[in-house]
Amino acid sequence: MSFRRQSTYRGALVAGTFTNFVWGFLLASVLRAVLADGNVGGLTRTTATSFTFLAQGMIATSRMFGDMTLVASVRSGDVATELARPWDWSAYRLSSDLGQSLFASLTRGTTIVVAGWLVYRLPRPELTHALGFAVCAVLAAVLASRLWTMAGVASFWLVDGTGVVQMVVGVATFGAGLIVPLQIYGAGLRHVLYALPFSGLVQGPIDVFLGLRSVGFVIVHQLAWIAVFEVLLRLELGAATRKLEVQGG
Amino acid sequence: MDDFIVPSSSFVRTRASFRLCLRMMRARQRADMQYRLSFALRLVGAAGQLLLEVAAIWALVHRFGSVGGWTLGPLTFLLGVSGFAFRVADAFIGGSTERCAELIRTGRLDVLLVRPAGLLWQVIGDAFAVRRLMQLATMIPFAIIGIGRSGIQWTPLRVVILVAVIVNSVAVFAAIFVLVNCISFWAPTSQEIGNAFTYGGAQMAKYPIHIFDGWVRVVSITFIPVAVTVYLPSFLLFDAPNPLGVTWWQSSLALASGVPLVVAASVMWRFAVRHYRSTGS
Amino acid sequence: MSDLAVHTVGLRKVFSARTKAGRVRREKRDVVAVVGIDLDIAAGSFVGVIGPNGAGKSTTIKMLTGILAPTSGEVRVLGHVPLRERTILAARIGVVFGQRSQLWWDLPLVDSYTLLRHVYQVPAHDHRATLAELVERFDLGPLLDQPVRTLSLGQRMRAELVAALAHRPPLLFLDEPTIGLDVVSKFAMRDALATINREHGTTILLTTHDLSDVEKLCERVVIIDHGRIIRDQPLVTLLDEVDPDVDLEELVRRIYVGQPLR
User: Using H for helix, E for strand and C for coil, what is the string for B34-100?
Assistant: First the structure.
């Protein structure tokens, strides 16, 4: 259902894909230059290039620019009617978000990944890695859904919710390895960043694709954080609905 | 009936429009600061995001010791000065790209056209946001550190060149913003494309462009000419590996590149507005 | 000529529309929005411009205010050519767009007026006097410190009118100002407009779908349909063309659909 709604945003799609192109080729160039003959934490020149384009693709999957629609909905009051409906709101948002992720991945995501592969003649992944990646990518989309929903619901308590979402986008972008792959960071910081939930959004699945980390670890990490977010989200929603009731809807 | 004075000469009008722009910015600032908590959060978020980005790039540079042969000193200079110049332009003109598209989509641009003030100044004034000023403030220390660590042998001439680099870079980035604004007049729903030119360009300017693969390098000199901001003129200031063989007069030419770009941006803006006024919305 | 607020001869606007013809090709087609309008409005008049949707009313107003460039024809507003002298003309006119606000949404109303004072370069004490008078007439006193977004539509439209008048323009354009207003606000606005026209001699050009506005306020009616003026006459002579029991709305309806008037 949410799949088709997205097809109408053609202009924004083209723009987004173009942005991906520019960033992808730019970041790839930088990494290729510094990794000319080196190897950092398993990243070689080739794998770093693959990383960059996969990361750009996963921006679409994990919706790394944040989700302002929920904030707008809170501000306009529409969310109150949504919450009053008989279905499980959290599940409804999950399915809606997954639909968006799927559409974005198929359009923006695959375009940029294919482009990168063609231009740089990157190698094909092993089948097990590719399958592992697929599973982790889905989990990443779920994780992303919970994250952005939590950020959006936080705007109940603030007049201007965009500030919260922007902050989360900033931290998440950093923690997901989008500015620079997490392997680049020094030992201590790297471990902390890997432990945080954000790495599960982009870094984790890509590490699996490139065979740099075991798919088991990544999946466990993602599932653990999904569980934590679920709990937090329920609590947050509870508080939010109570606030709505007090206000009179 | 007409009791009030109408400014007549073009220069007087421009100056009046500029002053009006400043007032509109102050009005936006007051509006922004209305809700203390959200405002504080946004500021922290904006500064934080920028700091994280700088930290990431610094981590990269630190890990490898050098990028394209350039060591930490010159690289910090490149990062700090180009980043600072970009944020100066962004603080004042950055929001106008989105705002211009929004004004066109909602038809509110007509309200601005019916006022006795320059259109571009009004759009800029309307699009001001305090958080961008905060991001500018965040970059100041990095500019200072970069200049300090650069290893420049200071002479009066080099001080002048440094000032010229900064002023020129601000002009180049400002021109790029205005040019990107013009996209709104033809494709107001695809304004996001502009971000690739502005923020993408700013990213490009942070690195020595000789590390880029061929065509990205070409783009950084022609299409999104950010190489002229700091990289090209920097050879006038210090010795750094110069695999592209940039000559001193190329560096000097780069220093003056802001002028034709600003002129081009101004021409393009007028053309875009004329197009809007002849085809309507 | 010198006391004509608006003077147009053969005003014409043609839009080039690109339409899809078939699957891929795009055809260029010329859409003539305004055909050849000759309009003279004397200073101090109160003119109502009406017409069905898509008739070319807004296009014409946009050309008069300098927003849109005419394809051909001569147009002078207050002696200025709108296209070339946009900013000069803008300082001497007031415009109220029914659907688009010129006020600053998040700020207190008084801040908008202060900003507009600087936009129009009005000397401080003149502005203070004019504003005080207008605020009192439109009963906006208690609302001045409220953010504009908290005002009701009726209050906001009154505020917009004050904003358009604070620099004492000799010519006022109103584009659907009463749309969506409740009866009380409508009456208040009409009353104020009539007073301004009468006491200050402000020329007023009113575009509206609400024919009772026209009936109560306008001495002259211009009807535009399919890009041309089909009627341009004093309101009384128009009303004389039908039996007294036929109201203006019915009269105009007959004109739009091409029915005979009696």
Answer: CCHHHHHHHHHHHHHHHHHHHHHHHHHHHHHCEECCEEHHHHHHHHHHHHHHHHHHHHHHHCHHHHH
